[in-house]
Design brief:
Layout lengths: L1 H19 L29 H14 L1 H4 L20 H4 L5 H10 L19 H11 L4
Length: 141
């Protein structure tokens, strides 16, 4: 009986942590927000690099899948419980610049107009790691 209570408590704590680490931004487009300096005009040093995309996928699986889902549709197990729900990256990836993706991953979504739960990653991931995630995300269709 004690073991079941402990397991249930652990599940609740883990669920809370996962939910707090996911981001919203349902329906974002680059037209809603301009890319601010110093991010505006940045270019992806790994554009088209399959090795970087594979490295980015590994990071995406650990940092993003729980909200954005395996294929970026915003259908991760925690993503739909958020307000706003996690964004569908497949709807925006072909219309936004790499600098915008780098900006949003770096700064998160807490600012207007998104006010989402997506945490900033600039203190967690290196610039190269963020670019690798951008490279992976660009493969979503």
């Amino acid at each position: 009986m004690k073991r079941n209570k402990f397991i249930m408590l652990a599940v609740i704590i883990m669920s809370a942590l996962v939910l707090s680490a996911c981001g919203g931004g349902g329906g974002d487009t680059s037209e809603e927000v301009t890319v601010p300096a110093p991010y505006s005009g940045m270019t992806n040093p790994f554009d088209g690099d399959s090795t970087a995309a594979a490295a980015g996928e590994e990071i995406y699986v650990t940092k993003c899948v729980s909200c954005h889902g395996e294929t970026g549709k915003g259908d991760g197990p925690a993503g739909q419980a958020l307000t706003p729900p996690a964004g569908d990256l497949t709807k925006i990836v072909s219309t936004i610049g790499d600098d915008y993706l780098f900006y949003r991953i770096s700064e998160g979504g807490a600012m207007d107009p998104f006010n989402s739960s997506m945490p900033a990653q600039k203190s967690v991931l290196s610039e190269d790691e963020i670019w690798q995630v951008v490279t992976h995300i660009k493969s979503f269709k």
